[in-house]
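re: ur question from the group chat, yeah i did fold both. here u go
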Amino acid sequence: MAVRRIYRGERIKVLSFNIQAATRTRRYRDYLLHSWKQVLPHASRFAALEQIAHAVQPFDIVALQESDSGSLRSSYVNQTGHLAELAEFPYWTHQANRNVGEIARPGNGVLLRRQPAHVVDHRLPGRIPGRGALSVDIATEQGASVRFVALHLSLGAIARALQLDFVLSELQTDQPTIVLGDFNVGRGAREFEAFIERSKLNVATGNAPTFPSWRPESALDHILVSAHIRVIEAGPLPLPLSDHLPLAMEFELQ
């Protein structure tokens, strides 16, 4: 089978989505009243995955955060693989980041409609382990590749700064690059602004709020792009299927 490359002028659709392990949260009190859903299986989780699969199906590349790797709460189903099957993605990769016994195994995942040329599983630094980034390269017509770095950063500013420094050390500025995911921080934060300045990446999605999904106030999710990427359209989708709204972008190579 021939490798499907990314061609100059071809429009590619990308999505970043923190799916909260397919546990729908519609209001703040749900965190308390439905907290049991974070540790126990329930029938509505598979219905939620079907809705998420429908939402991600139009996209070429999907970065998932808080996708369970296969534990008690997910009925021992790897949610990334399950979504790939439901949404008919031929390729997928998954990174299990934290193992809370048999109860929960959150991680990052990437769904792809093109075979990746290279995948690297990065463990991000931090006082509390359990954060990661997936680096995925997809070949271009010029024989190079576009690098997608899908990540989920920590809640604390010190840990985020260490993690962003690590990500920066892994970026190759001479290739088209897209960094996307749940940064757990918005524009104006010192560590985030320093990363943007040093990486020379542009924030394609501005400071669009994505959290909480029922009344977005905080811009925690972002898609950053290098100068090689021409953004056609970008922004959150009004799909309250998690406590975060998904972020979508359509782009082409310069």
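okk and heres the other one u asked abt
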Amino acid sequence: MSSNSITSTGGQPELRGAVSRFFKARTTTLLLINLAVAAILAVLQPRFLDPQNLSSLFMGMTYDLLMAMGMTLVLILGGIDLSVGSVLGLTGVVVTMLLSNHIMSTAIPVPVAILAGLLVAATCGALNGIGVAKLKIAPFIVTLGMFAIARGLATVLTSGWYISGLPDAYLTIGQGTVFGLPFPIIVTLLILLGFNYLLKHWKPLNQAFYIGQNPDAAALSGIRVTLVTFFGYVISSLLAGVAAVFMTSRLAMGFFQFGLGSELNAIAGAVIGGASFAGGSGDLLGTFLGVLLLALIRNGFVLLNGSPNWQGIVSGAIVFLAIAVDAYRRRNETRD
């Protein structure tokens, strides 16, 4: 009897500690904020809970989430990728040009066209990676250059025109459903779960945290800093390429301006979710919640007939607040 009593008493502090850590966690705070925003929208506009609206909301955030996942990895490494939106646009143009029956006289198989587009995206990421990891050029400069190059190539290839005439097999990728859920949502969630697991448990990816905290110390400990950083930028561009496939197949066309401004949404979702510009921190589940919060705000403006001009202001204010909170938290950690 006495032994059981001691065990029970000893377990209570552990339980209280676990509960305290849960409610102090950033992801928990974000989850509660998202639930609060969703509840307010449901009260103000009952149409918010319509399955069609919810499906549109999650479908709309799919593209930003894919790019935000790659952005989170790059931020963990202590870098930044300003080219993801332009890489999305260029990848979408390449894939749709290869598939369009208005452009190509010979039909290109859908898998081949997608592979070619993803190869273009990976090449953009590889060039970013070489510039940052090998040549030691500031990530801001390298990816800003790729931002201009990729968008310029997409513009030159299309001359500013839309690309249509895509085969049904390709449109099914973005418009098909499984058990009522759009295929892109299912694939994106699977990528999120798999990527999150690998980032936490697979050594080559997990080393990104050590590189972001102190690249010199990471190199001295045997971590291949150049290689990990290189592949971080390749992964970021590849995820933008996947977003391009989903976007162009969903909208049944390619356009050189697709992805315009998406890099800001990706950065916002990652930073709100816990990634830091100082490197060494980030969480993909937090990134998901950060992207979801921005999607809820955009959806709320649409449902409540709010001026679209205010969307950017509100989103920007949230990002500014997230950066300020992160800077305050890091300053306190350094002081401690």
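fwiw on the second one: The mean pLDDT is 88. The beta strands are 177-178, 181-182. idk if thats what u expected
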